[in-house]
Amino acid sequence: VQLQASGGGLVQAGGSLRLSCAATGTIYRANKMGWYRQAPGKQRELVAVVPSGGMTNYADSVKGRFTISRDNAKNTVYLQMNSLKPEDTAVYYCYAYFPVNGRDYWGKGTLVTVSS
């Protein structure tokens, strides 16, 4: 299984970006899929997670600004990021959990830079 993320880049404060991440190399559906991020000098933190059939979970810092969604048929998860702030600058990592083998998978990360 590989997670292939795209959509990062440089944006001004107040702008928007959309991240996407596809799980490839498997015929099985991921259960949980989501995004974490790691800013320089900080620990990796949860941004948003969406189960295949449950409620989404967001970090308090992004509620009302970010929206996570997924396409189960494509094993793809998206993160729409609006009203971006400089403190959102980080490397964003895609995450997926596959119950078929009980393993977590991580993408390589995509850099999001928000300038003030």
Characterization of this structure:
With 116 residues, the chain is an all-beta fold. Helices cover 0% and strands 53% of the residues. The chain is built from no helices and eleven strands. The strands form two sheets. Strands 2, 4, 5, 6, 9, 10 and 11 form a seven-stranded mixed β-sheet that branches. It has a four-stranded antiparallel β-sheet with strand order 1-3-8-7, with no helix packed on it. The termini are far apart. The model has no long low-confidence stretch (mean pLDDT 95).
Mean pLDDT, all residues: 95
Q: Termini distance?
A: 37 Å
Radius of gyration: 14 Å
Number of helices: 0
Helix and strand succession? EEEEEEEEEEE
Total number of β-strand segments? 11
Structural class: mainly beta
Shape: globular
- Low-pLDDT stretches are none
Strand content: over 45%
Give the % helix. under 10%
Largest sheet: 7 strands, mixed
